[in-house]
Fold this sequence. Notes:
Elements: E1 3-5, E2 8-10, H1 15-19, H2 23-30, H3 37-46, E3 52-53, E4 59-60, H4 63-69
Antiparallel strand pairs: 1-2, 3-4
Amino acid sequence: MATSYFGLEDSNLSVIQIMYLTREQLAELIDCSPSSLRCMKRWLDHNGWPYVVGRSGFPKVARSYHDSRLGGAMREIVVETQEPNFGALK
């Protein structure tokens, strides 16, 4: 049975794939080739996105940062309603 995390459906997702954008997702965001690491790093630096570089040279971007930066993070909205004081009308 497939499990869904952040819109990703796969029964074999690793924690790393859940925590960070995949190479393909980052390339789609930046509009470059998935193999163009230099282009990715330049875009991330220019736009002020934090990332870490793995041993392979791939820039890892936290999925949570991506979601919050693009407005995709689910935020809990608390609405407090105050009832009118009907007793004051007497």
